[in-house]
Structures are given as C-alpha cells and as structure tokens.
Amino acid sequence: MAPIFLLLLLLASSHTISATRNYRANFIANINGATADQVWPYIQDYCTLYLIFPSDNSFCTEGPEGKPGQIRFSTGKVPGTQPNSIFVFYTREILIEVNAKKRFLTYEFRQNNIGVTFLRGTMQALPGKNGNSFFQWTLVGAPVGNQTYPEFVTALQGTFSGISRLVQNLFV
C-alpha cells in the first residue's frame, strides 16, 4: 500500500452555536494513485458511508437522494469502558450541502448516543499532482462534556486515519 501522508491542521474556533464553544479540526491525507475526480464518487455517495468510514453500517432513511435534507443513519462498535465490553453507537445525520463542482459535501449530526451536541463535518476531494489527490475532512463541533481541544482532536484523528486508509485502499 502506498504511504498515506497525514497532515493535521489544528485550529481553535471561536464560533458559537447555541451559546456553546466549538472546536475546529482539519485533517488532510494524500491519496496516491487516484485523482480528486476518482475519489469524489466515494464521498458523494452519502448513503454508503461504510465504504470509507470504519462503521458497521450506514444507510439513508429519508429525504431526497444526494440532496440537502437527506438523512443518514450509521451504527458501529467500539471498545466499551469496561474490560472486554463493546459499545454500539449510532448517529443520525442530515446532509446540509453538496457541491459536485468543488467536490465536497457537508453534513451535521442530529441525534446520537455518544454525547455529541453539535458536529458539522465537511468531506472534500482536492486535486494533487501527478495523478494523486488529497482527502480532507473538516469538523466543527461542541466538545463532549469537559473535553479539551487536544482530546477533541485525538478522538477524531483516529477516525480520520481509518477513513483515509479505507479511501487509499480503494485505489491500491
């Protein structure tokens, strides 16, 4: 597998939504052997997130296909807080914006059982050089409980590493 170059841009955000402080994290991975036009269809297909996201299942439940307002439901398993336990998570998200020309989509968490009160994500395929591209994931979200900014970023960095590996593996 071609190495994945991971650049993590950390930006504290002072935006406020619902009178809560929000954090911003921007992750970028180099995708070798695939142009942005080749990567984009995997991002654009909002209903099959499981192809590039390390979750067990995702599917759309309502709304216009591939258009703002479409609702996606995802589930997955992660290690639980007790030894040898598993936590099954779910998220219900809404597609906010799709821009095929700029190859990005934006979505927002609406319901979940992981304690997230606000999270907006944007996934984008960006052109690179020599037939390569970049996969970018930008998130703005409210911290969970007393979560610090480094904890927010660390929690998302592991997920991004999994996503970028799965995207890269599509083109190996």
CATH class annotation:
Alpha Beta
**CATH fold title:** Alpha-D-Glucose-1,6-Bisphosphate, Chain A, domain 4
Low-confidence stretches: 1-19
CATH architecture: 2-Layer Sandwich
Instruction: Please report which band the strand proportion falls in: under 5%, 5-15%, 15-25%, 25-35%, 35-45% or over 45%.
Output: over 45%
Organism: Lithospermum erythrorhizon
Protein name: Polyketide cyclase/dehydrase and lipid transport superfamily protein
InterPro entries: LFS (IPR053249), Polyketide_cyclase/dehydratase (IPR019587), START-like_dom_sf (IPR023393)
GO molecular function: protein phosphatase inhibitor activity
What can you tell me about this protein's structure?
- With 172 residues, the chain is an alpha+beta fold.
- The chain has helices at 36-44, 149-169; strands spanning 6-17, 20-31, 57-62, 71-79, 86-99, 104-112, 119-127, 133-141.
- The longest helix has 21 residues, at 149-169.
- The chain is globular.
Describe the structure in brief.
The chain is an alpha+beta fold and 172 residues long. It has two helices and eight strands.
Name the features.
eight-stranded antiparallel sheet; 2 helices; alpha+beta; Alpha-D-Glucose-1,6-Bisphosphate, Chain A, domain 4; 172 residues; 17% helix
